Amino acid sequence: MSDNFLVKVKYQGTSLNGEVSAITILEVKSGNKTSAEVPIRTKDMLESKPLRNLLIDNGMPAAEGVGGKWKRTHERLIKSDLDNLMVLDRPGFHQSNYVDTSQNAFGLAHKKRMYISGDRVERLHEYSQGEFQEWSDNVARYAKYSSRLTLALCAGFSGFTSELLGVESGGIHFYGNSSIGKSTCLRVVASIFGPKKRVNSWFATETGVEEMCFSHNNSTLILDEFKLLDRDPKIAAQKATAITYLISEGGAKKRARSYSDSSSSWNLSLVSAGELSLGEGAVSGGTKRLPGEGVRFLDIPAQSSEEHGIFDCLPKGYNSSASLVEKISRGTEKYFGTARFKFLTSLCDQLKNDKRKLIGEMKSDMKFFLEKANPNTGCERRAAKRFALQYASGSLAAKFKVLPFSKKEILDQILKVYMDYKNAIPVSESEVLEGKIRNLKKAIKSAKTVVVDKVRDVEKRKDMFEKGVILLKHTRKGRAVILVSKVFFDNAVGGKGDSASILKKLAAGDILIKSSDGKNSLNVPAKFKKIDPALKCFCFDRENLA
């Protein structure tokens, strides 16, 4: 080689699992240019032509790629026996280390460099601009005034923690009218990682989505406006459903070996936005969301207050949410990428020092949130678990001094969004009835029950029973039962509107004991005739009611 062009082997190694080919990284220097690293599959170096063409593309004069001089150069390069490179097939965590798509490694605990190889990995916009404190002062601190921005930031960090905590891929979707701040939520999340180009479009082929997911493994994928998938709302809804299902499955469809070296898999968090909720999009398109999809990808109403959009209140000096949105947007354009670096550096250090302790603390945070959220059904609990992940991730970011909030502030903000989320869910008729039956059981459990024969004041007990103040204990056909007045029943279930449906479900569950002629209500038993033998009541099996 001439003095104008120099090349040597800098790194060389193989993959841990054999999923990708061995790689050699050459260091080349052409003229006065800065040295550059050029990767090549090690097996391609054995053949003269691929190596020569690569070097010519990187500045080697064509004249140096022929004759004895080239032969000596080729032999020198292929004789290298370095073993200082660990070749990886995807970004994300590898033991306690993290490698991003730009080949930046965090927490490296050994001498080997880590390198991601493969055509499936798209290089993301992961770089920084400005200082961390500038990002904190001009972007993150304004989340104090918005529960939605707080959730968005926490969701951004959850991409790094979900697999560590055993949580499947999933995420949140902000929906609502235009100009309320949905895009601001996405830009704020993007600023954790890099510039606003980090926000992707829903518009992609299935293969394109797979590649996006693979490249965002152990990170957060940000998508904007799913209605752009297709002009036809039905087709757009079908595509959105297919995409969210693919993301949540955590792996690509199996294809021929000729398509890829190995099957793709991932674990990630998704943050997206659109005017319609994913549920509304499915309905407008004449489809239904797939089972479990609604609790993996949560539809979050972006509007937190009628007056201020995504903001719960405004800081001093701001008269409108529009001016605050503009301020935050300018901040995300000037300062970005430093929060990711600070968070990952601290996280990898903690994992290296005591991984079990760190994960245990985060799981405790998730459990604490679930206790505060107090979900009532299995679906509610699965949804609450997604919020719990955001809380635990945000709390960790606060612990690392990445977010300028206390755990209490983060808890309050995310609990608010959780309650708004619950209140916005279209509840099915069956869920409504189940809720009213739970209310009835609670009312009976807390009510005063008496054996009428022990009450001396006959008129008083009749009045108390009719008004639902007391319930009567009794035995009917060998079964311990409890009698409640119609007034008590209506008060407990919130009116007469669903009474027939509720009683039907109670009868099906062998809780309601009907009269001998099959009616839902029966007369107060003769034993209590001093009350009023014509007075109607409902009779419930005490054991089955519990």
- Shape descriptor: elongated
Strand content: 15-25%
What are the low-pLDDT stretches, counting only 5+ consecutive residues below 50?
254-262
Largest sheet: 5 strands, mixed
Helix fraction, binned, reads 40-55%
**Structural class of the secondary elements?**
alpha/beta
Radius of gyration: 32 Å
| Number of DSSP-assigned strands | 18
Task: Give a topology summary.
Layout: E1 5-15, E2 23-30, E3 36-41, H1 42-45, H2 48-57, H3 67-78, E4 85-88, E5 92-94, E6 97-99, E7 105-106, E8 113-116, H4 132-138, H5 147-161, E9 170-175, H6 182-193, E10 200-201, H7 206-215, E11 220-224, H8 233-249, E12 269-274, H9 278-284, H10 293-296, E13 297-301, H11 321-334, H12 338-373, H13 378-399, H14 407-424, H15 429-446, E14 448-450, H16 458-466, E15 470-476, E16 479-485, H17 486-493, H18 499-508, E17 522-523, E18 536-541, H19 542-545
Parallel strand pairs: 1-4, 4-8, 9-12, 9-13, 10-11, 11-12, 14-15
Antiparallel strand pairs: 1-2, 2-3, 5-6, 6-7, 15-16, 16-18, 17-18
Concise summary:
Helix content is 43%, strand content 16%. It has 19 helices and 18 strands.
